[in-house]
Amino acid sequence: GFQLYICHKLTIYIKCNLQPWHGKLAQADKEGRLVYIQNLDIRFGASEIVELIREALQLSCTAKPINHPTYDDPNNGKAYVVFNSRNIADEAVMKINSGLVVGGRPLYCSKGLLKVPKPASGALVGHLTISNQKMNPRQREEQKKAVSTSHCSQPNTIEYDLALDWMLVREKQAMKFSILHKRHAGERKSFAAKMEK
């Protein structure tokens, strides 16, 4: 990126070394300076998190709140925090995990980026591969000539049955997570009330 400065009708462009956040996160992770903090207030922005770290831990950092995965607790704020050195990051993890409570919320953290599992092969996750190697040449020819009448799942296919089962499981899971999140919100409120006494 570039910053624009205008001085006495003279425009000066100064090239900035503005690295995108994902690049900064990856670099900080490699160097052991990245900390993943959980159970923050969801209303905290980057500046509030930086101020919290400065006030509570007497450490300087940069921070980036992150979005929540689909089934994660929506009341549980998360952020990546980048410290100046590996030792400072280790110190922050130790202090936070030893019982730092902010607004009635005990914070906890770990070092590094979240590890998202990748599929072992290049195949799409959840897709079934049906081998046609056991078909005789006549069956393969018939399959090539077959005309598809619909791209949607039909009630007489295994995909349809699996899709219905999957939708039912997802609905049950969403309901259970909703109940769990409400219970956690209530427990947080009662914990915060106890801490104020």
From TrEMBL:
<protein>
    <recommendedName>
        <fullName>RRM domain-containing protein</fullName>
    </recommendedName>
</protein>
<dbReference type="InterPro" id="IPR012677">
    <property type="entry name" value="Nucleotide-bd_a/b_plait_sf"/>
</dbReference>
<dbReference type="InterPro" id="IPR035979">
    <property type="entry name" value="RBD_domain_sf"/>
</dbReference>
<dbReference type="GO" id="GO:0003723">
    <property type="term" value="F:RNA binding"/>
</dbReference>
